[in-house]
Amino acid sequence: MPHIHEKIDFTTVRSRRFSGLARTINMHTLRNALSALETMIRHVPILSFLFEKKPAVAKYLIAGSLSTATQLGGLYFLVLLHLHYLVATSLAFIAALIVSFTLHKFWTFGDHSLERVPVQFISHAALGITNLFINGVLMYIFVENLLHPTFGDPLMPHWYVAAQALTSLLIALESFFVYRLFIFGYLRRSAREPELHV
Question: What predicted TM-score, i.e. pTM, was given to this entire model?
């Protein structure tokens, strides 16, 4: 009986060590990839200026752009593979959500902890779904109550584009502060600090 216990403990310890090693290697690879991305982007003149002044904002804009490119590119290629466009857009949305989460967590806001990844990912996804709802509400308000009554029919083909641009800007600002303060940011870290000192 003692032999079996020792063997099980040894196997568990060994698998935990391997799992920890695999996570360390994956984190090291991810950090190298993000560092290479940042070095490459810093060579673009306008982005290099933004990196110098407001690095978190620059990273946020680039991460959002890469996430959007993932969604649009994924949708395009999945439809080319003859997937139904609704299935393709759902899969592309999930891929973009993963890209967005990874870039924002580890690069934009520099949160390299792994223990809260599931909670943070669920919060990130919930924010995305909430923003989808906010997007619809703001679009309705801007189109029906602001842009259309103000500018009338001459802008009819374009008012929804202006409304979407304004809505996207407001949602991007709101999301930045939610990510920074609550999901990946210093409010969450400072709330945990007393636990670390105890």
Answer: 0.70
**CB of 167 closer than 8 Å to CB of 139:** yes
Spans of the chain below 50 pLDDT: 1-15, 17-18, 21-22, 154, 193-198
The CB-side HSE value for 118 (13 A sphere, CA atoms) comes to 1
- Write down how long the chain is: 198
Q: What is the pLDDT of residues 9-47, one digit of tens each?
A: 444 444 454 455 445 557 677 777 777 777 776 777 777
- Write down the pLDDT at residue 127: 95
For the stretch 90-101, what's the b/e string if a residue is b when 16 or more beta carbons lie within 10 angstroms of its beta carbon? eebbebbbebbb
